[in-house]
Specification:
Structural class: mainly alpha
Radius of gyration: 24 Å
Shape: elongated
Number of helices: 5
Order of helices and strands: HHHHH
Keywords: Membrane, Transmembrane, Transmembrane helix
């Protein structure tokens, strides 16, 4: 068989299965809840960002201290922008 026909059959089967599942309201809500949980796992959380390390380059991060000594202010500016 040609690749095109196989892909078309798989797509049609997927659409038919999805439409069958989404006909029932409880299944539709359950699927939306799973989708939202899955989507939220990939979104970044602001509390996980290392803002304190960006605001004070001299604590423990020697590489960041070297970059600031060379004139890089990205970490410090980012920290000030987020904390406003």
């Amino acid at each position: 068989m040609r690749k095109r026909s196989v892909i078309g059959m798989l797509g049609a089967t997927g659409i038919a299965t999805l439409s069958f599942v989404l006909m029932d309201k409880s299944k539709r809500e359950r699927m939306m809840n799973k989708w939202n949980e899955w989507r939220n796992t990939f979104q970044t959380n602001q509390s996980n960002l290392p803002l304190e390390a960006a605001g004070d380059p001299g604590k423990d991060n020697l590489e960041n201290t070297d970059m600031v000594a060379e004139g890089s202010q990205f970490g410090v500016n980012y920290y000030n922008k987020i904390r406003k």
